[in-house]
Amino acid sequence: MKKVIIGVFAHPDDEAFGPSATLLMESQTGSEIHLVTLTGGEAGMNPDNLSDPGSERLREWKKAGELIGATKMYHFGYADGELGNNDHIHITKRLETLVQTIAGDRDDIEIEFMSMDLNGITGHIDHIVAGRSACLAFYRLRAAGLPMTKIRLACIPSNYMTAMNTDFVFMESGHTPDEISETVDARHLASRIHEIIRCHHTQRSDGETHIARLGDDVALNHFIVRL
Fold first, then answer.
1. pLDDT band at 89, cuts 50/70/90?
2. What's 141-201 look like in SS3?
3. 115: β partners
4. Distance CA 42, CA 35 (A)
5. Closest CA to 153 of 10, 41, 8
6. Measured distance between the N- and C-terminal CA atoms of the chain, rounded to whole angstroms
7. Measured between alpha carbons, how far is 198 from 101 in angstroms, rounded to an integer?
8. Spans of all domains in the chain
9. Helix crossing, 190-198 with 204-214: angle to 10°?
10. CATH class for the domain made up of 2-226
């Protein structure tokens, strides 16, 4: 059976900074990777004062996706930083339609979703909408008879994030070992993950901080798995 992975993320750099190591490993072993970004990330950092930062961020996303080995990539076109309940419902319907199109009449595939945990890791509302829309679409598609296997929700362990953070929005502390279902160790690919992160040049301040803080552990991914 062919594994098809649908990655659902809010911003162009979310999978790079998150579970890119797992996605890269999966593509290297033959999985078909489809990446969705809900927004163009136009409200993110813009150190070069670009007139259209969203377009540049999408170009960076395409470059990073090529390094990950994505089969296809989809920009849904929602406004960065403005997602809410109505968008959540609409995004879910679009994900259902997308997956039904990808599946077509293929009978040799198993479909897995990947997104962020239901707290959005950082508490960012866009991240929360991405994770919850992915879950809602996953279970609706399964109920409709599609071959849905599991959804992996990327998360941060408690040893990385020991306490809550209130600097921006409310960010909960990391997940305890008993809450984490799966850990993927792809540290042998760490240099490639650094390269993927650095594709997002407009977000280089966060990227270099992320690499400096985690080093090779940037390729150590943790998931809550829902079946």
1. very high
2. HHHCCCCEEEEEEEECECCCCCCCECCCCCECCCECHHHCCEEEECHHHHHHHHHHHHCCH
3. 153
4. 18
5. 8
6. 18
7. 32
8. 2-226
9. 160
10. alpha beta
Tens digit of each residue's pLDDT (9 = 90 or more) over 4-20: 999 999 999 999 999 99
**In the numeric block, which tokens belong to residue 29?**
């072993």
Do 75 and 58 contact (CB within 8 A), yes or no?
Answer: yes
Q: CB neighbours (10 Å) of residue 100?
A: 12
CA proximity to 14, closest of 217, 221, 163, 185: 221
What span, in angstroms and rounded, lies between the C-alpha atoms of 152 and 32?
16
Per-residue pLDDT reduced to its tens digit, 165-203: 998 899 999 999 999 999 999 999 999 999 999 999 999
How many residues are present in the chain?
227
10 Å CB burial of residue 159 (0-12, 13-18, 19+) is exposed
pTM of this prediction exceeds 0.85: yes
Amino acid at 29: T
